[in-house]
Task: inverse folding
């Protein structure tokens, strides 16, 4: 699905930016999307620059709800043929997110063992 009206996008961005997100700066820009064409062109340019920013692990505020949502979107539960048991995995192109998730889990669950 996709929101197509600027008003709806602004309203949703205003709510989303109140929660931990790597896209908070982009959401802030969308929440205040300008009316005039020159300002929109400038905002579009700023948005493109923000999409190029590589996050750091410290940028990720990892909590159990964040992890659950991330796992819903990017997680996998599998039964590997190479060993008895199950495996949980997550993938993401932004390494900072994976480092933050790993750090969070190691802090939250004592004695956690992982393959990679």
Result:
């Amino acid at each position: 699905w996709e929101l197509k009206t600027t008003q709806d996008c602004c309203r949703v961005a205003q709510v989303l930016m109140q929660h931990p997100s790597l896209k908070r700066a982009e959401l802030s820009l969308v929440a205040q999307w300008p009316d005039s064409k020159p300002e929109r062109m400038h905002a579009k340019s700023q948005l493109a620059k923000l999409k190029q920013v590589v996050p750091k692990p410290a940028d990720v505020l990892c909590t159990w709800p964040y992890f659950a949502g991330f796992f819903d979107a990017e997680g996998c539960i599998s039964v590997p043929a190479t060993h008895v048991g199950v495996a949980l995995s997550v993938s993401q192109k932004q390494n900072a997110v994976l480092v933050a998730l790993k750090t969070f889990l190691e802090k939250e669950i004592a004695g956690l063992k992982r393959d990679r």
User: Anything to note?
Assistant: Residues 29 and 44 are 9 Å apart (CA to CA). The mean pLDDT is 89. The first strand starts at residue 75 and ends at 78.
